[in-house]
Write a structure and sequence with these properties.
With about 375 residues, this protein is of the alpha/beta class. The protein has 14 helices and 10 strands. The relative contact order is 0.13. Mean pLDDT is about 80; it is low at about 165-185 and about 345-374. The chain binds adenosine-5'-triphosphate.
């Protein structure tokens, strides 16, 4: 072979395997395809469009809030959702919704990013704060309870905030209880989308197995959850790897905030994350395979699941007399911040009898840093 031929052949092996024309700019972790930027944008956006269409996530005319933390995933989500909405004429009215947990040096900075995103993407932004809703910011809660268990408060309160999305675009939220009392009649937002990605979901499958939490294992892989009377939440990035989202944000030069929460060392989830990343290095499909395993688990019909009712105090769904948020709030307001902290689920997700507290409240199972529970 002539030398000049050999040198011209070498770069050809790094050609994009899709367009066979441009130079490959990355290797996708999930299939090891070497592709160029343009084909990557197309492939990534098309995969999300497919998830939206195949799972019928939205209907024309719906009002959809993007849970915007200012982090990479939700920033990419807001950007891609507005692009796809325009390109494929979904007919959605999109909003950004941010929850200000009141964490100085973390959320205040990330909210500044979301405020810029509001202008960059032309999406109206609504910020709701724990302080306004519950009377407590996370800074104050950490002062009262310390660093241990603070994620339980944050996860539970954030989940409850989800229900308020019904109302936040209608009027300022003054308190939790009247807001919930007004019920679905005032529904203003039809769906909430979050930036949970395939890595998050694989981690959660693994954590639910490790904790023996069958109830959550059964629902953590669903692309849409919460149709049981609560606002439906959708996860269009269910099958998108974190690395692809990172690359997309980087190539598109999106404006996001990338600091970890200062109160959330999140050690247990962190180990699961590392473990999954190690597996992915050996077997690129590992993350998608774990999700598939989670989807395919069948729960025996003889397994007793928690019965779903409503909280006597605020009306939020609860398998106990009072929902977790009301128990935690009561503890905070009575100067007993540890009330409601602790795990009381038995094996197979069955409820064990928990110690009675004043007002007939019972402990219910807690969950650290429930990113899937937003
Ligand atoms: N404070 C918040 N306000 C609004 N949405 C939030 C907030 N925190 C989390 N979410 C939503 O839940 C998803 C997963 O939460 P997670 O804790 O993994 O977010 P993050 O790592 O802070 O940011 P991101 O996922 O955007 O990179 C986010 O992608 C976002 O859609």
């Amino acid at each position: 072979m002539e030398e000049s031929e050999a040198t011209t052949k070498k770069p050809r092996s790094r050609q994009c395997c899709i367009c066979k024309d441009r130079r490959a700019a990355l290797k996708r972790p999930k299939n090891l395809e070497q592709i160029c930027r343009e084909c990557f944008y197309d492939a990534f956006e098309e995969e999300i469009h497919k998830v939206i269409v195949q799972n019928q996530l939205f209907k024309p005319g719906e009002r959809v809030a993007v849970g915007a933390s200012g982090g990479k995933d939700s920033t990419v989500l807001a950007y891609v959702m507005s692009e796809l909405n325009r390109r494929h004429q979904y007919g959605l009215e999109l909003f950004l919704l941010s929850v200000d947990e009141g964490i100085t040096g973390y959320r205040d900075d990330s909210l500044e990013t979301v405020k810029r995103n509001e202008i960059q993407y032309g999406l109206p932004l609504k910020i709701v704060s724990y302080k306004d809703l519950y009377g407590w910011s996370m800074d104050e809660i950490v002062k009262a309870i310390g660093l241990k268990n603070n994620c339980t408060f944050c996860g539970v309160f954030r989940r409850q905030v989800r229900e308020l999305i019904y109302f936040v675009f209608a009027r300022p939220v003054v308190s939790l209880i009247p807001a919930l009392d007004r019920g679905a009649a005032l529904l203003k937002v039809d769906k909430l989308v979050t930036g949970h990605n395939a890595d998050d979901i694989a981690e959660t499958v693994l954590l639910n197995i490790l904790r023996g939490d069958i109830a959550r294992l059964g629902r953590c892989t669903s692309i849409t959850t919460g149709e049981d009377g609560t606002i439906p939440r959708c996860k269009p990035f269910n099958f998108e790897n974190l690395d692809d989202i990172d690359t997309y944000a980087y190539f598109k030069k999106l404006d996001y905030f990338s600091t970890e929460c200062i109160y959330s060392p999140n050690a247990y989830r962190g180990f699961a994350r590392e473990f999954i990343k190690d597996l992915e290095r050996i077997r690129p499909r590992a993350i998608l395979d774990i999700i598939k395993s989670g989807e395919d688990f069948r729960i025996s019909t003889t397994t007793k699941m928690p019965e779903q009712g409503t909280c006597e105090r605020c009306g939020y769904i609860s398998s106990q007399k009072w929902c977790k948020a009301c128990v935690l709030l009561e503890g905070l307001n009575r100067g007993l911040p540890k009330l409601g902290i602790g795990r009381t689920r038995g094996r197979n997700g069955q409820q064990r009898d928990a110690p009675q507290t004043n007002g007939g409240m019972k402990n219910i199972g807690s969950k650290q840093c429930g990113t899937l529970d937003f």
